[in-house]
Amino acid sequence: MSVREDPQAQPVRPTAEDSVAAAASEVIGGPAGRRALLGTSWWTPVRIIALVAIGMFALGMVQKLPCYNGGWFFGATTQYTHACYSDIPHLYSGRGFADNLVPYFNHIPRKISGGMEYLEYPVLTGLFMEVASWLTPGHGTSQSAMQHREQIYWMVNAGMLMVCAAVMAVCVTRTHRRRPWDGLFVALAPAFALTATINWDLFAVALTAAAMLMWSRDRPLKAGILLGLATAAKFYPVLLLGPLFLLCLRAGRWRAFWSATGGAVGAWLVVNVPVMVSWQGGGPQLREGWTMFYTFSQERPVDFGSLWLIISQRSGSPMDDVNTYATALMVLACAGVAALALCAPRRPRLAQLAFLIVAAFVLTNKVYSPQYVLWLIPLAALARPRWRDFLVWQACEVMYFLGIWMYLAYTGSGDQHRGLPPEGYQLAIALHLLGTLYLCALVVRDALVPDRDPVRRDGSDDPSGGVLDRAPDVFVLGEARRTAQYEGAAMIKPGAGRD
């Protein structure tokens, strides 16, 4: 006699609900059967996705090979025409690591830094860079010796960042218990492979993904600690406290929110206080090296990849008030996210609001470096796990990745102007902006029309929401107050609203 299996207890098969995944699976023999997901094989989703992520990371390293073999050192435009630029080898000598200078404590000579007096990165990223420099062997100050040391420094950092990539992929895979294969969105993202070793952003992204995993497992204090560490490595993770506040307000889960917030603040202070404070004149003062990241972010002009660069280039104005404009737009975006969180007919999922708030920061910021896409990839995988939409967005990001390097080749080739002119680069920026807005619009639609949400299609509520999952609402506004009963999360019929 057969026993009917509970669909809520079975992992979601992407090939059964996503036409793009089903079509792509034909390359490896077609959609997986039911028994392939029972977990009896060594090849579990976590292990498969971790290996795929490492493989894609390795392909990204191969893509940087023309620069590793000389493009970083010979000729100003080679690293742009081959689209293999990385900050890592340049900052090894340019921020004093090759000379054993200690970040935030030692002043960087102008002759090697190009005017940057101290390291302009948050403290935990600075520690990551410093540890990599300790692991970089080599001596000598000749040109060939220095180039070799910079190559090794990039390789050491790549090895450390590969670990971060695997952690990120595993955390995303385990966040939605019934949707482990959503981790493939992260592992197979083209922009992930292309941008992983441009800078050190993967470190903060991995910590943020781990924080999301801890929150999904009802461990708000650990989630907060990891979020605080992530904020000590990059600014953007602190934005996730906003969605947590709004959702905990709606659900009345204040204990979890304050536990996470306390852990985040505590972890950030533990990392930063030893570096930020110096004792001078008998009292504590902020260390100038520690403040460099914050003053640099505030004072930098309109830069690559931003909406403001298009406006500045088209109008011929330097936009001295860009901080005011960017802040005003970000405030409006935050107000929109807050309205969505409190007025949607059903409480939005944490991943949805997290993606929207970080995307708003990316869209309104006065600079968009190509590796910033790494901030959004894990959140997009959790917020909108649909291959068609994900790949449309990724195509836009890949076009931007190519566009910025071709533009820098154009501006760096003198009178020859080999590369992409400003008008072409503006189009690349517009593609990035429109692609991100497209994905944001779909996430907003899913929140407003929950039966269009692919995650909630099987009756789930908020698999990554931790204490928020299936929690009754206690505070709502607008249409939600008039149309819904808040005795618990509404159930959606499996298979409803397929797109």
Automatic annotation (TrEMBL):
What main location does UniProt list? membrane
Q: Which compartment or compartments is the protein found in?
A: Cell membrane
TM helices/strands, residue ranges: 42-62, 152-172, 184-213, 225-249, 256-277, 324-343, 390-412, 424-444
InterPro entries per UniProt: GT87, UCP010361
Q: Which UniProt keywords apply?
A: Cell membrane, Membrane, Transferase, Transmembrane, Transmembrane helix
From what superkingdom does this record's organism come? Bacteria
Q: Which Pfam families match?
A: GT87
Specify the protein's topology with respect to the membrane: Multi-pass membrane protein
Name the protein family: Belongs to the glycosyltransferase 87 family.
Q: What is the protein's given name?
A: DUF2029 domain-containing protein
Q: What is the species listed in this Swiss-Prot or TrEMBL entry?
A: Streptomyces coffeae
Q: What is the lineage of its organism?
A: Bacteria, Bacillati, Actinomycetota, Actinomycetes, Kitasatosporales
